Predict the 3D structure of the following.
Amino acid sequence: MDFYKLMNEYKEAFLSDLKGLIAIPSLEDFESAKTNAPFGTEVRKALDYMLELGAKEGFVVKDIDGYAGTIEYGEGTESIGVLGHLDVVPFGEGWSHGPTEMVEKDGYILGRGVLDDKGPTMAAFYALKALKDNNIKLNKKIILILGTNEETGMKCMDYYAKHGEIPTCGFTPDADFPVIYGEKGHINPVLVSDEKTVIKKLVAGERPNIVIGKAQATLPKLTDKQRAEFNYYLQVEKLKGQIIADGDDDIVEIEGKYFHAAMAYNGVNAAVHLLNYVGASFADKLASQFADLLMDWKGTGLNIAMEGAYMGFLTMNVGIVSIKNQHTEITLDIRYPNDTTGKELETRIIKSLPETITCKPVEDSKPLFVDPNSTIVKTLMHAYQAYTKDTFSPAKTIGGGTYARKFENFVAFGPEFPNRETPNFFVGGPHEKDEGIKLDDLLKAGAIYAEALQDLAKDSLHADA
């Protein structure tokens, strides 16, 4: 079966269905949360949208109390799972079009969620449709599990694990190809201080897992010298910013670059730069302390910098900064290799802090690690290579955290390809403005998913699967 040819035959229907899903601004919203909509009405709408598509195609669909939903095909005592999520991160600023308006441009599609993770989830849905439309006989059930809270804690999967059917093995289409067999551990330390500061207000950041792309600080009226120092700082650091008069105060603004926290080195953290400027120009002790602790995304200031044997270096992102009424709380996003533990990192952080700064107790999301020689990894690699002819790119590990860590024998699998083309216009990645993906890549991912599910659901699964 040539699943890639079939995906291209589905292309117009695929685009129409995805466009309708992208149009739903499925952001977590506890103000509108209610029974069967635990994360808000818009997320619930996205779940209903997918379940209705599944029912229309003749699949068995189930609603897991609004926390998740399933679209199922086939039967068997064993099952293969695909874990996709329908929630998205906040839109941010600077889009060239409406974030919920999916647009096509020179072979690419853009819109919030086309890459993370509505587009890949739709590709997995069409993979199931391809199997069903062609009456491909399977020995196991395939369960497409639709999550609703991946971006803000994965509580949806915790609930599903208690109330839904747990697949024997599977994958999540929420990372990179070829296969992601390991994911870094994840902690979100919160640093707290009541030390006095000249900063009257600095509230920046939307989620811990996004590099802060813009930040403003309300400060006492700047002197001419401080204004000159601000302009010099912008020039040296190659940043954009401005000073806005606000009565007896000034609002100092710096623009950075939004990016996914797992790759904080690709972003520019505006809030950290603001702290660095204020610390130097105002001789502000608190701002200087935090700048020294947090400027390096490797975590050297907190004495946690390290590089793992399998997973590479630790990354640290300053995700949320709240300074008001002389009280400071800063939330970090730290991704660490499986050579250490969250507890060890917490201990190191606490020891590195001055007396004026404390750290709240840390919850640890432990690393995911699946044997790269296991059946699940080998089967997925075979499906990837069948449609790409890429036998060079190896299975790998990443810093991002996906649903795969919530179940045994799960890995992340696509949709982004290695060595992909760079278009002659801006296409954002996950959590960025103008988030996008090449349409042909998404269709090819759907073909690979269909091939992989066919192979996994036909053969006997061993203990290492």
User: Anything to note?
Assistant: The domain at 186-365 is CATH 3.30.70.360 (Alpha-Beta Plaits). The longest helix spans residues 439-458. Confidence is low (pLDDT under 50) at residues 461-465. The longest strand covers residues 315-324.
